[in-house]
UniProtKB/TrEMBL annotation:
Pfam families: PA. This is Protease-associated domain-containing protein 1. Residues 69-153 form the PA domain. Residues 1-27 form the signal peptide. It is found in: Secreted. It comes from the Eukaryota. The gene is Pradc1. The lineage of its organism: Eukaryota, Metazoa, Chordata, Craniata, Vertebrata. Keywords: Glycoprotein, Secreted, Signal. GO terms for cellular component: extracellular region.
Length: 192
C-alpha cells in the first residue's frame, strides 16, 4: 500500500523491471542504464540514472567511491575550458548543445577527465533519454560518456550554485541491485 506514492513507486519498479528484464528481439537494444550517487552536497544526495553513449566512448573499469563531478566552464564544453585544471582526473558535467556529443567527450578527454556526463539542455526533461551516437568525423573517444536527463543536470548545477561549490562528490558506477533502498534514493522530482 502506502497510498498514491507507494502505488507510483510500485508502477515505476515494475516499469524499470520490464525495461531492464525484457530481452529485445532481433538485436534491438533497450537502453542500458548506469547509476551514480551524489554524496555531497547533501540536498541532492540521490542516485541518478544515466545512459552510456551508444557507439563511442569507453566503459568504467573502476568504481570511483569519491570522485569530483565538475561542471564544465563553459557548460557546453565545445572548446578550451576555463576550469580544465579541475577536470583533470575527475568527471565533467557538460551541457548538451553547440557541438556533437563526441566533440564534448574529446574535449573532456584532452583535459584529462576520467569520464563525461552530458545533461540534456532541456531543463524540464525528466523522462526522455537521448541516444548519443558517433558524429560523422570518424574520430573516437576513450573515456566513458553518459547522457543525463536535463532536469537532473539542472538540479545538480543549481545545488552547487546555491552552496557556492565548484563540484559535487559522487560514486560511480553504483550497483543498484545491492541497494535495497534504491527506490527511496531516487530524486523526488522523478516520481510519476
Amino acid at each position: 500500500g502506502g497510498g498514491p506514492l507507494g502505488a507510483a513507486m510500485l508502477r515505476r519498479s515494475l516499469w524499470l523491471c520490464l525495461c531492464l528484464c525484457s530481452c529485445p528481439a532481433r538485436g534491438l537494444r533497450i537502453h542500458e542504464y548506469l547509476y551514480f550517487q551524489v554524496l555531497s552536497p547533501g540536498d541532492i544526495r540521490y542516485i541518478f540514472t544515466a545512459t552510456p553513449a551508444k557507439d563511442f566512448g569507453g566503459v568504467f573499469n573502476t568504481r570511483y567511491d569519491q570522485i569530483h563531478l565538475v561542471p564544465a566552464d563553459p557548460p557546453e564544453a565545445c572548446g578550451e575550458l576555463n576550469n580544465g585544471v579541475f577536470i583533470q582526473d575527475q568527471i565533467a558535467l557538460v551541457e548538451r548543445g553547440g557541438c556533437s556529443f563526441l566533440s564534448k567527450t574529446r574535449v573532456i578527454q584532452e583535459h584529462g577527465g576520467r569520464a563525461v556526463i552530458i545533461a540534456d539542455n532541456a531543463y524540464d526533461n525528466d523522462s526522455f533519454y537521448i541516444e548519443m551516437i558517433q558524429d560523422s568525423t570518424r574520430r573516437t573517444a576513450d573515456i566513458p560518456a553518459l547522457f543525463l536527463l536535463g532536469r537532473d543536470g539542472y538540479m545538480i548545477r543549481r545545488s552547487l550554485e546555491q552552496h557556492g561549490l565548484p563540484w559535487a562528490v559522487i560514486s560511480i558506477p553504483v550497483n543498484v541491485t545491492s541497494i535495497p533502498t534504491y527506490e527511496m534514493m531516487q530524486p523526488p522530482w522523478t516520481f510519476w
